[in-house]
Amino acid sequence: MKLTPQSKQENAIHPEEEKGVTIANGRAGELVLRQAAYIQAASSDNTRRTYQSAVRHFLKWGGVLPASENQLRNYLLAHAEQLNPRTLALRLTALSQWHHHQGFADPTAHSGLRKLLTGIQRVSGKPKKKAKALELEQLEVLVTYLDSRDELSARRDSALLQLGFFGGFRRSELVSLRVEHIQWEKAGIRILLPRSKTDQSGEGISKAIPYGEHICCAARALKVWLAAAGITQGLIFRGINQWQQVAEAGLHPASMNTILKKHAGNCGLGETTGFSSHSLRRGMATSAYRAGASFRDIKRQGGWRFDGTVHGYIEEADLFEENAMMSLLSLSAAGKTERKK
C-alpha cells in the first residue's frame, strides 16, 4: 500500500518521541555495561587472567570454540607429556567456564575426558612444588643485613618483608596496602584489608601486628620506610628509580620474588631458588607453630580459608619434632647405655 502525505505524517515519529527512544536506548546500553561490569567482578582478576591465558593456549594450539569432546581429547593427549597434569586440569576448567558463560553445551563434562585426565595424572603426575619456608631466624639475618645498608630501597624492602612475614599477607595484598589501611595503636598496628582472596565480597579483614622487642619489628620498619620515602597517603610499597625517587605506582606482585631472592642471596642464606613471596606466609605459619601459637591464631593471621592448608604447614614443621622414629632412636640409645653399665 502506498502511503499518502497525510498517512506519512501520521506515521512519522515526533521529535520528542524520538528523543525518548534515544534516552531509553541509552539507558538500556548503560544497564548492559553495568551488568557486564558486575559479572566481571564475580571473578577475581587473577582467576580471570588465568582462564583467559588457558583459552588463548587452546586456540593457539589449533582449537576452535565452541569445542568438541574429540578436540579436547586431542588437546590433552598433545600436552600430556609436556604440561603438569594440574595445569591441564586448570585449562579444562577454564574451557568449561567459557562454554557455560557463552551458553554452549560443556564438552568437558564427558566422563571419558575426565577419565583420560585421571590416567594422565597417574602416569605423569609430579609432586606439587612448594615454596621454601623462610624461618624467623632467616628473617632476622635479612633484616640485619638490610638495616646495615644506607639505601632507600633497603628501608622499603625491610618493611615489605617483615610485614609480609608477620602479617601473613599474600603478595597481591601486600603490594596493594595503602596508608589509609594502617591504624597505629599503642600495642602495634592494625591493618584493614578491604578485599582479599578469601574475602571476595569486600567485607574486610583486620590483622594486628604487635611491636617487636628484638631485631624484627614490622611496625617500626614500616614507620621508618614511610618517613624516609615521604609517603603520607596512597600506596605504601612503590618503585624507586636510579635517582632514588619514589614512584607513584606500586610494586608489581611478581617483584616480591625478585626482592626476596636477591637479598637472601646477598646475605648468605644459601640456595635461594626455593624462595618466593609465599615463603613469608609459610615461614610465619611454621615459625609461629614452633613457638607455641595455636592453630586458630595461625589460621586467622594468614587468612587461610581451609584448615587443611594450615595443617600441611604445621605437619612440615613437625617432621622431626613429632616423629615416631625419635621414640625408637631414644629407646635404642637408652638400651646401649644400659648395656654398657
Automatic annotation (TrEMBL):
Residues 129-326 form the Tyr recombinase domain. Residues 1-21 are annotated as: Disordered. Residues 30-103 form the Core-binding (CB) domain. The keyword Magnesium does not apply. The keyword Transferase does not apply. Residues 11-20 have a biased composition (Basic and acidic residues). Keywords: DNA integration, DNA recombination, DNA-binding. Residues 1-10 have a biased composition (Polar residues). It comes from the Bacteria. This is Tyrosine-type recombinase/integrase. The lineage of its organism: Bacteria, Pseudomonadati, Pseudomonadota, Betaproteobacteria, Burkholderiales.
